[in-house]
Amino acid sequence: MTLTAQEVRRHVMDYLEATGCTVIEVSPLHVTVKLSPRADRMLTDRPYYWGFVERTGAEPETLSFTFVFDPEQYDHAAAQAAAAPARPRGGTNLRPAPMVQPGSNDMEAAAETDTAAAGGAPAGVPPGVSTEPQDSILARYFGIVPALPRLGPGMIRREDVTYGSKRLKQIWAAARDEGKCLQLFEDPGSRQRMTLFSAAYEPWLGVCYKVEMTCDLKREELHFLGISLTTGRIAADFGTRLGSLELTPRLPENIHIQPYELTVSGGADRLESYLTDQLAGLDYSWAEEARERLRLELSIVDLYYSELLKEPDEEKKQAIEEQYNARRTETAWQYEPQIAVSAVTYGLFHLRSS
Amino acid sequence: MMQLSRNSLPQEGGISAPLLPVPLSFERNWLQDLESRLEKGGPWGDWKLSRLAVQGEQCGLVTSFDELQCTKHLSSLSPLPHQLDTAHKVLFEMSGRAILADEVGLGKTIEAGLILKEYLVRGLVGKVLILVPASLVLQWVRELNAKFGINAVAQKKAYSWGNDIVVASLDTAKRDPHKELLLSSEYDMLIIDEAHKLKNKKSTNYQFVQQLRKKYCLLLTATPVQNDLGELFNLITLLKPGQLGNQGDFAANFVVDKRQPKNEVQLRGELSKVMIRNRRGEGPVSFTKRKVRNIPLTLSPEEKALYDGVTAFVKDTYQESGGNLSSMLSLVTLQREVCSSRDAVFITLVNLIKKLPADSPKRDRMMELLQSIRTVKTNTKAEKTMELIREMNEKVIVFTEYRATQEYLLQYFRDHGLQCVPYSGGMNRGKKDWMMDLFRGRAQVMIATEAGGEGINLQFCHHMINFDLPWNPMRVEQRIGRVHRLGQQNDVVIYNLSTQGTIEEHILHLLHEKINMFEMVIGGLDVILERFEQKESLEKSLYKIMLEARSDEELRSGLDHIGESLSELSQETRQESGVTP
Fold first, then answer.
1. Confidence band, pLDDT 50/70/90 cuts, at residue A137
2. Do A344 and B46 count as a contact with CB atoms less than 8 A apart?
3. Where do the structural domains in chain A lie, given as residue ranges?
4. What value of ipTM does the predicted structure carry?
C-alpha cells in the first residue's frame, strides 16, 4: 500500500493539529508550521535542549518546518511564482527552487541551500565550488551528517515528506507513542444531560493486534478486536465501530457503567483465544513451503558436513562440528516459520449499551 | 530473538484453542501497561493520535509474502529493471543468500541496497553488518542514506558497533578487539563488497566471515572467477556450504583443470541458484558510448636513447639468467616504466643497484643507464597530456601505473597552473575521500595510480587519459569502469598515449585492434580471458614474448599470435551469446 501526496498531507495535518502546532502557511502542496513544544520533543531529536528547558525553566523556542508533500509540483509552482514579475506575496514561503547540482539527487542539498537563502546568506556561491552537504568536514569523516537544526526566527527548514520518508515514519511512531493506551467514553450528546434516566454504558476492552507471520519471508495482518467486559461478546471489527462514534476522554454526565463480569486480563485471554481461532482458519501453505525449504537446506548442510566430520584429527573435528552446528542453527533461524502477535494500540472504551 | 512464548492457551474462558501448525507467541506487555495506568488513573493517550498510529500501521503493512515493497518507499531512486529483477530473485528464490556478481558498473550496490531496504521494510532485518574495502566505507554510508533512506553509520570507534546498521572495513573488523565483539553478535544481514577477497579459505578474511553469525548474506563481486574454480567453490561454501557438494564432489563433477570447468551447463544451473550475474550486453540497460583516441607520440632523441639502453639491458640480463622468468619481474617492470617516465625508471634502477653486490659487473652498466637518465630533460608524454587537458577544458582523470610518474605529473601540472589531485591505493580512507571531493569540487585533474582505480565512482567526469597501459586487460577495463558506468550522462572519451617504436605501441595495438577492448561495451571480456588464460596468464605470456624476442620482427609476430587467438576467442564468445541471447 502506498499513499498519495494528499493522503500523506492528511496524516501530517492530523498530527500537527492533534499536537497543537501553529500552522503559518498552508496549501495543498505544503504546510509551513511552527511546532508545539509537544511535537518538537517528539520530532526534532533534541533531548539536550529539552533537558535544558526543563531544568532552567527557559522559554522554549520550537522549530519551524516547511513540509512539502509534492516536491515536484511545489518546485514548479515556486519557479512560476519567481518568474512572475508581480511583487512577491507578503510573507510567502514560495521561494524559487534552489538549483541542485546535477548528480546530486540529495534533497538535503536543497534543504540546505534553502535555509541559507532564508537566513539571508549570500546566494552566490563561487562557480566550481560544490555546495553539497558532503563537503562539510564532518560529512567527510562520517560519510553523512544529519542536517543540524537551525534556530532563530525565519530559519525554516524545508523538508520533503512523501510516503517512505523518515519524517512520516517518525510522525506515525510519535502518534503511536502518545496514543497507544486509551480510556475513552462515548459522547452521549447534550440530550442525555436533560434526560431523567442515566444511560447504561458497557465497558469494552479494545486491542489492535498486529500479526506477523514470518519465515524467510513475511506477511502481516491487523486485527482490531473488542470484547465487552460485561457480556463477554466479541466484536471482530471493533476499530470500524469506534471510528463511527464520537469519543471523549471525560466521563460524561448522567451515565452509569455496567458492572464488570470479566477482568481486563480475563478479557485479554479471551481475545487471544479468539484471535488464535481466527488464525487457525488461515492457509498455512506458506509455512509448509518454508519448512520444505528448511528441510532441503538442512539436508545439503548435513551431507556436506558428514564428509568433513570423518576427519581423524580430534581437534580439527571439533572445530568442524562447531561450524556444522552453527550453520544448522543459522539455517533454522532463517527459515523456521512462526507467528508473533503484538498490540499497536489498546484501551478501555465505554460505549452506550445497545 | 527470544519471545515470550505462550503457546499453550488459557483455558479459563472455556474456549478450547485449536493447535496452529506454527508456533504462535503473544506479546503481552501492553496488558501490564494498561493495568498500571488503570491503577494510577492515567495518563491516557490521545484518540486522534491513536487512530493515526493505526492508519500508519495499516499503510506500512506487508500484505503479501511475495511482492517487493521497497520501491514504494524510495522516492529519490528509480531502480533499473535488471536491478529490480535481481532484488526479486534474491528475496523470493534465493531466500536472501546470494552472490551478486554483475559486471562492473551495473549497480551492484543499488541491488544490495534494494534487498536490504526490502528486508528492513518487512521488519525481517534489524541488525546489519556491511563489510567493504576501507576506501568505500563512506561511499556506502552516503548511498544508503541518500538513495535508500537507510540510517547506516560508518564504523569509527568501538562504540560504533552498537548501531543497528554499520558499515566497516573488513580489515578493521577481522582484527582484535573488534573481531571478538562481532563474533559474539548475531547479524540479521551481512553484506560484503569486493568479496573476491574471500576466495582463499585459509585466509583470515575467510575464516572470520565464516564464523560470523548471519541470517541473510550478500556477497558482491565483479570477478567471481578470476583464476581458479576452487576459489568460486570457496566463495559459495561461505554462503551456503554444500550447495555444490563437498570439495571432492565438486572436483569430480565440475573440474577438469584449475581453470577449466566440465559439465558447464549443469554447473551453470547450480550456480544460478546462488549467484546472479548481469552483463553489460544484456537487458535494456543503455550505456553511453566509448570513444577512443590513440595519440601516437615520437620520443625525443634522449628519451629514445634511454629506452633503447634499458631494452638492451633487460634483454641481455634475461639471456644471461638463462631464461628464468620468475626472477625477471623487476626487469620487466623496468621495461614498462621506461615507457612511462624517467622518474619511474630512476627509482627502480637505484633500488636494483642497491641490491647488487659491490663488485658486480652489471653495476657499471646500470650506472651508465642512470647517466643517460640525466640527459633526458623533457617528457614528451607529459607535454602532450598537458596539451590535451588544455584542449578539452573539462574534468579528466589521468591513470598511470607508477607512483613516481604520478608524483612527477603532479609537480609538472602544478608548475603549469593546472589544479590537480593525486589518488593512490596507499592513501588512508579519509584522504582518498577528501581527494575525491576535491576532484568533484575544485580540481580539474585527478592523477590516479592503478591501486586507486578500485571502487571509485567518477560519473561526473567523462574524459580519461591512459598515460601508460596495464598489460592486463581486466585492469584496463576497471579503469574505464570508474568513469563509464551507470549514471554517466556523456559519451566517455578515452585517450591512449603511445610512444612509437616502443613495446607500448605493440601492447596498445593488441588491446585495441585485437580485442577491441576500449569499445567493447558488450562485456564478455572476462570470458575471453578466462579461456585464453587456461594455460598461462596473458600478462606472463606477454612478458615472455617481450624478453625472448631477438628482433622487432619476432616481437611483432609473437604478439600477433596472441592477438589472433584472442580475437578468435572473442568471435567465439560473440557467436555463443548470439545463439543463446
1. low
2. no
3. 5-79+104-174, 179-284+339-352, 290-336
4. 0.78
